[in-house]
Amino acid sequence: MVTKYYVYALIDPNTNQIFYIGKGSGSRYKSHAKATLKSGSNIAKYLKIHEIQNEGLEIKTEILYPYLNEEDALLLEKIMIYMLGRKALGEGGLLNVVPGGKWKPGDSIFYEEDFTPNFDDSCLDFVARERFYSFTAIADFSYLGAPVKKQKIYVYDFNGKLISADSLSCWFKELSSTIY
After folding, report:
1. 32, 66, 68, 147: which could join 73 in a potential S-S bond, CB 3.0 to 4.6 Å?
2. What percent of the chain shows pLDDT beyond 70?
């Protein structure tokens, strides 16, 4: 079994707060320091990195869970994003836009109501296992109180005339297929 993957965190050196969770292999975790804004970029993450760099500082990067196979790394990434929550959706403070894991453009950026992470921690070494259990969930998923398909976005023109009423998942489908 190949164990070349890991889950990492980008940390603001001013506050020591994690602002992004990712999964990678090789030197993927280093690539954020050279981030450029391009189509499909996570603009909030890009701006945060450049704000830190403009202060003459470097983003801190910490590999939270090393020596994983890809399947475990994908699941751990999703669990960590779930636990810490995404700022753009009012869940928490992460600048991640998508829920992580096996997400691909066109998939919903929302968690299903029944998302309950079931993780076998035997793939983690002692230090990583202790770290995993040291995190407590801080995310608030107010949108999980009602099925996403029942939540609506209403769009009006400047005269107050209703243009459309789409489910939240339909409204974000185009967004999630271009931003990740």
Report:
1. 68
2. 72
Compute CA 149 distance to the chain's CA centroid, rounded to the nearest angstrom. Answer: 21
pTM for the full predicted model:
0.76
Residue 19 CA, chain-centre distance (Å), reads 9
Contacts of 112 (CB under 8 A, 6+ apart): none
- Mean pLDDT over 2-24 rounds to 93
Average pLDDT over residues 16-25: 95
C-alpha distance from residue 146 to each of 38, 87, 117, 167 (Å): 35, 20, 20, 12
Say if CB 141 and CB 111 are below 8 A apart: yes
How long, in residues, is the chain?
180
Helix (H, G, I), strand (E, B) or coil at 5: strand
Q: Give the whole-angstrom CA distance, residue 177 versus residue 96.
A: 15
Beta strands in 91-133 (DSSP E): none
Q: How far apart are CA 91 and CA 143, in angstroms?
A: 9
In the structure, what pLDDT confidence band is assigned to residue 5 with cuts at 50, 70 and 90? very high
Q: For residues 30 and 35, what is the distance between their CA atoms, to the nearest angstrom?
A: 10
Q: What is the mean pLDDT of residues 133-152?
A: 69
The partner residues of 166 in beta bridges, in order of sequence, read: 153
